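Researcher: I'm preparing a figure for a lab meeting and need a structural model of a single chain. I don't have an experimental structure, so a prediction will have to do for now. The sequence is pasted below. Please return the structure as tokens so I can convert it later.
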Amino acid sequence: MRKFVILFVFLFIASLVFTMDLSFMDSAAYISTILEVKVIDPYSDYTDSFKAEVSGSGSVIFSGWFKGHEKTFILTNHHVIEFALMKRENEEQQEEVNNAFIQLFNDKSLAIYKIEGDKRILMDKPDESLYYEVVSARTPTAVLYYFWKRTRKILFQPEVTIEAYSADLDVAIVSLPCTGIPSLSFAEKPVVGETAYIFGAPLGIPFQLTKGIIGQVHLDADTGWVDMVRYDAAQAPGSSGSAIVNEEGKIVAIVRGSYGNMSGTAYEGQHVGIDCRNIKDWLVLTGYSDLIQ
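Model: Understood. Here is the structure written out token by token.
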């Protein structure tokens, strides 16, 4: 009997020691933008229109008073909120956005849905013989896991304010006018071999936790993606912008895409993210150094 008691106590203590602290999940966010899309066949009079939703993920990195205002800041990718920037662009840049629409349809790191009534149809890519023009885009909205976990349903999606972004680095920060949301801090750097966790909204469905390891740092690609972090934690369209955290629950990188997106060939487990050191440098240079925790 005594042996069983000792074994039980040992297993109980071991469970406390080796159980991963998953509190970082409370900082996850799901971000989406609704688009009005016009379809044109250049070889006929055919035209059509539909609504589409571009969705991705993000993580809260600060929630408190910032320059005299209550704000919660969410870190994500530039390409997740790119279409909402149309309102700020001139006609020449508008054309660039329209052309980018087809490119993003083919980017497996981004989830794009065609909306038909109450249904959402995941679109891998459109008919390349047609021209897809983004007519308008609404302000992005966010769903915070901190609230979603109570009901497992999307009850409300408040609009976010786009604070800053970099197309080259593919990062952006958006904000909500509130405080008290759990936030993540940054690790010093990603380390090859360390455990990596991703918690986001793959396929536009909040929320899923996956696990892998950091396999490489300072990866450069021919496409211009430089100083990337490579890892094998599972992801899907809609994972873009998710924080990649270590076992301490600190951000080592954020999801950017998959190596197949860059090379044109799909490879399982070959995913790339943006190094936390580059993100921290960008925050300093854009006047948001107070967000680095």
